[in-house]
Amino acid sequence: MTSLSPDAASVACQIDHTLLKPEATAADVTALIAEAIELGTYSVCVSPSMLPLTIPAGADLKVAVVCGFPSGKHHSAVKAAEAALAIEQGADEIDMVIDIGAAEAGRFGDVQADISAVRASIPAPKLLKVIIESAALTDAEIVAVCLAAVAAGADFVKTSTGFHPAGGATEHAVRLMKRTVGDQAQVKASGGVRSFDDALAMIAAGASRLGVSGSASLLSGATPAVPTGAY
């Protein structure tokens, strides 16, 4: 593992090191895994077509995979099948996208049913994160969707795909999401978390996991580790 400051190392272990570009190749994913191990991130997060991954023996690295990504406009049965296949091919965690339009239309029962279908396809201890695209929703919609996710058995609510034009994570959204789910679920901040200060702000707001594509750059913004023998 690379030499990180204690502050950087404490943030690294909360990062899902992410590569979801449509043009990503197998070589890119191999490089992603190597970098994640070097940095000490919690996981790598990839597209389902990149599975199965080859994680070096002894590496303490989880595999997260997106589902219904990035639009969420997939039939629940398709999302459930996609999630189940990802688990079968080695995923530890699923990051699913809800139907944002259903949330905006106030159809929160449908949102809950969608999440429940995926939850049923990936029994615990596999983790389910629910991407709500918080920047596209009102505060009331964020609260209602988070409650639906908890009711459906989600382990995390997650701010964003990083692909929506409305934007990504904000401290306000993370704080609201955490206040809503309390101890019943965790919060992942994703989309636009680019600097070390961004990461610290999201963690302070209530996030316990971060989705980051530029992890090396972000972590380099922390106070550098003091070399052995330095004064």
TrEMBL record:
The species this protein was found in: Cryobacterium fucosi
Protein name per UniProt: Deoxyribose-phosphate aldolase
Active site: 95, 158, 188
Similarity annotation: Belongs to the DeoC/FbaB aldolase family. DeoC type 1 subfamily.
Cellular location(s): Cytoplasm
Keyword terms: Cytoplasm, Lyase, Schiff base
SUPFAM superfamilies per record: Aldolase
Domain of life: Bacteria
Principal cellular location given in the protein's record: cytoplasm
Reactions mediated catalytically: 2-deoxy-D-ribose 5-phosphate = D-glyceraldehyde 3-phosphate + acetaldehyde
A single GO BP: deoxyribonucleotide catabolic process
Pathway stated in the Swiss-Prot or TrEMBL entry: Carbohydrate degradation; 2-deoxy-D-ribose 1-phosphate degradation; D-glyceraldehyde 3-phosphate and acetaldehyde from 2-deoxy-alpha-D-ribose 1-phosphate: step 2/2
EC number: 4.1.2.4
Purpose: Catalyzes a reversible aldol reaction between acetaldehyde and D-glyceraldehyde 3-phosphate to generate 2-deoxy-D-ribose 5-phosphate.
A GO-annotated cellular component: cytoplasm
A Pfam family it matches: DeoC
HAMAP family according to UniProt: DeoC_type1 (MF_00114)
